[in-house]
Predict the 3D structure of the following.
Amino acid sequence: MTVILDTYHGNLEEANLVKAIQECGDKLSVYQIADSNRKGIGFGHTNFAEHFDALDEIKFSGPIILECAQPRQTPGSKEEIDLDELTFHLSVSKNWIVNQTKVLVANS
């Protein structure tokens, strides 16, 4: 059995997501990240530096999947898709991840 952690839903359901990462230990197989509002990293209140410290602590080496939802798009919404804003959120998130000095992303 393995565990997939999703930070967006973990933010809603877990009292302490860092502790959840630590408790998963070597059972964690996938880490899916999105900020607390499903926008790019740094646009919500999730402290990803603490998450990456915990991932390093458990020696996580699995895939990290970046989820970034279309801003202002909700099911049934008639708003036009703003690909420029989505591209911006993805770019900021990618830059944050790439610039981490943690071992788990240094080899990516």
